[in-house]
Amino acid sequence: MANGEIVAGFLAPHPPHLVYGENPPQNEPKSEGGWEPLRWAYERARESLDQLQPDVLLVHSPHWITQVGHHFLGVRHLSGKSVDPIFPNLFRYTFELEVDVELAEACCEKAAQRGLTAMMMRNPKFRVDYGTITTLHMIRPQWDIPIVGISANNSPYYLTTEEGLDEMDTLGKATREAIEATGRRAVLLASNTLCHWHFHEEPDTPEDMSREHPQSYDGYKWDMRMIELLRQGKTAEVFRLLPQFIDEAFAEVKSGAFTWMFAAMGYPELPGELHGYGTVIGTGNAVMEWNLVKAGLAGAAVPPSAAGGRESYAGAMR
Amino acid sequence: MTAVSAFLVPGSPLHLLRPDNPPWRPIVAGFERAARALAMSRPDAVLLYSTQWIAVLDALWQARPRLTGAHVDENWHDLGDMAFDIRVDTDLAEACVNAVKAAGISSKSVDYDQFPIDSGTIVATRLLDPDSRFPLVIAANNLYHDAATTMRMAEIATATARVQNKKVAVVGVGGLSGTVFREPIAIAEDRVAAEKDDSWNRRILRLLEKGETGRLDAEVDDYAREARVDMGFKHLAWIRGAIGGRFFGARVHGYGPAHGAGAAVIEFRL
Predict the structure, then answer these.
(1) Domains and CATH numbers, chain B
(2) Which of A151, A163, A259, B71 has the lowest CB atom count within 10 Å?
(3) Which domains does chain A show, CATH number per domain?
(4) Averaged over B16-45, what is the pLDDT?
(5) pTM of the model as a whole
């Protein structure tokens, strides 16, 4: 199988507050709302994803931390209840998901061929991290598209930021090769917050938006600077500034998802579409899209009637 | 004294999941000796702090009366899962929350079905108290708390136990040096990855054995930085806070590697 392609990448942060604010049936705690601008941003992203008709969603999450290698979910069906260890009052979510194991294995193999330590996670009792689940719920609450879950190796923290992000760059390139080799029509999800300075105490009513604001003005200014560059498609400049941004805004993109995604897409100098920005307990969160179909860098979805075998991957998994 | 025993133990799943691997035997055997010492001290409760239970907003305390399940480690999932059955002294835990809060440290209890219990807590409880005889008070490692805050919390926890007329064992769960092998190794050949780390670990263990708290205080920050000690050695701060800072020496029941990192089972003489 060949000719797979990445059709889009999304910056898709994972504050569990967004799920809490939405009140889906899967989540036990109930809210009065909150964080609407970010949730509306995800609504726009959902519409775009719907039109892209991907076979698979790949998500790189900073809350599945691994010390030895880059790991890939490798169990076809995973289910359970995910309780956020930081915000258990907000996120106790019952999930079921299907993994595209064939693609995950290809990613793992390609990563190993490029010299990375890469491993498959085969334990059916594994607890999927809340970052993966939150990002997936917010982008596709129907849970009807298979996924590939990728861990965040701690190399940017254990090594230098630059050395760690070099690994994520390699991982991204390996991911692209795997997608192409397996014929998938893939969407990439970088589950990262921008500025990560946050409050140290939670308001009594977490969804009281009169209490929500950026924790750091300097961090907010950094976010705006980076978003504006991304909106202008100045990708090279963004990555030139990235280490400084990480240091000065304590940015969560340090964990690698953002670099992984852009490396997989080939660092296109393509204006990103900002679906929305907002803070969550003071952190900066942007939902952004790089639509490679609209940019003419990937093919449009084939209508089902003309798809023949092409539509089979997602359908076969469902 | 309210604290009747105190232990520093590693929280790596490797020693629980592959106890027969030769390089890990000293730690497993050390746990066996520490478990006997814990049982002999007959505590009413165990005050446990694990570097692997990460908090960022508040000081979190486990307050669910019973925690059961099977946990799969995020990194060592290929070695199997770890069943656990933990009893919590909820009266003492809630009292600790209130007392720590009263001292100005924002504090909360957690009582949720299927709350993710960290590997370190499970490893320590399984190997120190395999029959789940002693109820626990479990405190999280808030990443923004320094050693002084951690000591203060432990001090308050012990004082709170005293108010409830309870004898406590104190357990700090965490590693020593933090240099690890970043690629798979033949586990039968595991060792402390860096000679400098090994040297630092042994030097600190000697100070602990001799109870040389003055020199320990003088060197612990350098040790934490140069040997990349797990979470800045805050698990030692927990123990020292709980036992009033002083101890009269320690017995190192076991020392060895955990995929390159340093690990030791230490019993403090109170």
Answers:
(1) 5-268 (3.40.830.10)
(2) A163
(3) 5-302 (3.40.830.10)
(4) 98
(5) 0.94
